[in-house]
Amino acid sequence: MNEPVVTVRGLIKKFHDVAVLRGVDLTLRRGEVLSVIGPSGSGKSTLLRCLNQLEEVDGGEIRHNGELLGIETVKGKLMRLRERDIVRQRRAFGMVFQHFNLFPHMTALENVLEGPTQVRHMPKTEASELARAELGRVGLASHANHYPAELSGGQQQRVAIARALALRPEIMLFDEPTSALDPELVNEVLDVIRGLAADGMTMAIVTHEMNLAQEMSDTVVVMDQGQVVEAGAPQQIFLAPQSERTERFVAKLHAAQQK
Length: 259
What we know:
By secondary structure, this protein is an alpha/beta fold. It has nine helices and twelve strands. The protein has helices spanning about 45-50, 85-90, 110-120, 125-135, 155-165, 185-200, 210-215, 235-240, 245-259, and strands spanning about 5-15, 20-30, 35, 60-65, 65-70, 70-75, 75-80, 95, 170-175, 200-205, 220-225, 225-230. The strands form three sheets. The chain has a six-stranded mixed sheet, with helices on both faces. Strand 9 (about 170-175), helix 6 (about 185-200) and strand 10 form a beta-alpha-beta unit. The longest helix has 16 residues, at about 185-200.
């Protein structure tokens, strides 16, 4: 797990002249599970959206396996990549959102099929086999012909995970994957993420679930006010934080968990 897959250096993102990310540095290594925690509004989700190039950055750089993402140097000037090149780079990342974003008029199988056929231009027979395999991977093989309205929130999120996996990404990005779920449905999604971790999938997870961050993470990154205030092993972050801001945030998490 020593090889860096994604490196972020000095990342800046602004919305209407308000800096949401202010010089973020981060390294994601192959096979690592990295959890990003912090107060609401600290820039966690924006960071993931920048990694997946859903947001254009205003400064700094992101590299995937050494390749600069989103921009290139042309005649000594930095230029935005063409959309087709951004789409190519984005294929390395699978994104799972807080809200499931499934197509309501498509079955679970059809939702998962969409990426391989439309993005990777895979023959439909091959894509169908892949989609069924990924639905099986998340425990929904028997629900292939169900529409989203016929599925629980946890099942819909698992379909969304299968959809992302069907694109064969190198890295999975999860943006608060359990926050829209009723408490009794959270574990079925966490079980899928546990399985991916056991399989060695490289993952970055924005989460408010302390159990997930403590149990599955190799590294926990704490963000506040658009900056990384501390990063380290879960034991350090949750039991012996080095930053006062981390200590305050962890204390709030513990208090909320005990209610």
